[in-house]
Specification:
Two copies of one chain form a homodimer. Chain A has 222 residues and is α/β, with parallel strands linked by helices. In chain A, 41% of the residues lie in helices and 18% in strands.
Chain lengths: 222, 222
């Protein structure tokens, strides 16, 4: 999290108003927004690429990175509109940045917006972007000790996706311990294991996304 | 980096004074201090464990983590004194935290202090802790695109250590591209490849540490 100084409160309050506005705007259109958070190289973009190649929903992406347009280009190659935010040093996305990016997406034609936050297991969890749900992405090679060492994100996320499960035979990783620690922090978290390139475990993830988008449309049409 | 607000400057100025004080204190004792920075799960602690099992220098460690004492316990099991700092949410170490930790290490009996920063490829690079050198630790499974996506750390580091090279056969990773991007950002960086558990590449890293500690003692005794 950013250093706690007196001035922080007013910035956060302004940002919260923007986040609330985003939430209201998306609710009015029946669009679900997810905030995907994980370390650099956790496999966030790869998960999204393979998600969109199979997902039967109209999706758009907001990509957050310190530098380069690479991730947005990868998403666009998967046939999905993507807006790149370069934070130029800022270690997380904030609602005002996301709001400007959303103006560039065709929201009226979408069911789902996925925000891929800056690769960082710490700071992004502190900031409400107006999302419906936070998703924690953690990869096997990062190690099984990450939930307890970086508890905040795992506590706040509705889904924890363990990626790169194809590397399990090559790395010491105690899967039982990993999930036990996740459930200790967050007993209600939905726990998914995925190897995106091979497609293993992807069906459950796709099913969750479809269910959420369907439920939001139902709710908004009542 | 932390959000840029007017109050930040005075905090950074105070922190810089503390960092300068640490640097002066360690120079007087001929102790080298390194600031190791990398993503969560980049292999920082594993590199240190295997370093200390072979290093013929008297070392101490300052461990920075959001939560848990696990990494300090691992280092102590390797026979090296370690002080754990739990930042409780703060995404990086600051000089004042390190100063207090150094008071718990037997500095007069050490050649080398290694600070293992909070797992984070962004924020820790912004803060001077009074170290002699920054070391960037990047692991193969994070992907070959990390230098250009997170340029600040790679630009500032004197050494870039690519870890987990044993996973190269199992992961698409363009090593030539990785090093090319590192050299584009930082032509003078020393580039090392290590698989700590097998010991591959460890000799070069140990040689660099010995050379630095030897040079500092020589300089301080002139």
């Amino acid at each position: 999290m950013a250093k706690v100084v007196p001035i922080k409160r007013s910035i956060l309050e302004k940002d919260q108003l923007v986040a609330d506005g985003i939430r209201k705007n998306l609710a009015a259109r029946g669009v679900v927004m997810l905030n995907c958070i994980g370390s650099p190289g956790a496999g966030k973009t790869t998960l999204l690429e393979h998600t969109f190649s199979q997902l039967e929903l109209r999706a758009g992406v907001v990509e957050g990175d310190i530098a380069t347009e690479r991730d947005a280009e990868r998403i666009r190659r998967a046939g999905v509109p993507a807006v790149q935010i370069n934070t130029k040093g800022l270690c997380h996305l904030e609602a005002q940045l996301v709001q400007r990016a959303l103006e560039e997406l065709p929201l009226n034609d979408l069911d789902l917006v996925v925000v891929e936050n800056v690769g960082n297991l710490v700071c992004p969890a502190e900031f409400d972007l107006g999302e419906d749900r936070k998703i924690a992405i953690s990869s096997v090679p990062e190690g099984d000790d990450k939930p307890l060492k970086y508890p905040h994100l795992f506590t706040l996320s509705e889904v924890v996706v363990l990626t790169k499960t194809d590397l399990l035979p090559h790395i010491p990783f105690d899967k039982a311990r990993f999930w036990e620690d996740v459930r200790f922090l967050n007993p209600k978290a939905l726990c998914l294991e995925v190897c995106a390139p091979s497609g293993e475990g992807l069906d459950s993830w796709l099913g969750v996304l479809s269910e959420w988008c369907h439920a939001k449309r139902q709710k908004d049409s009542v």
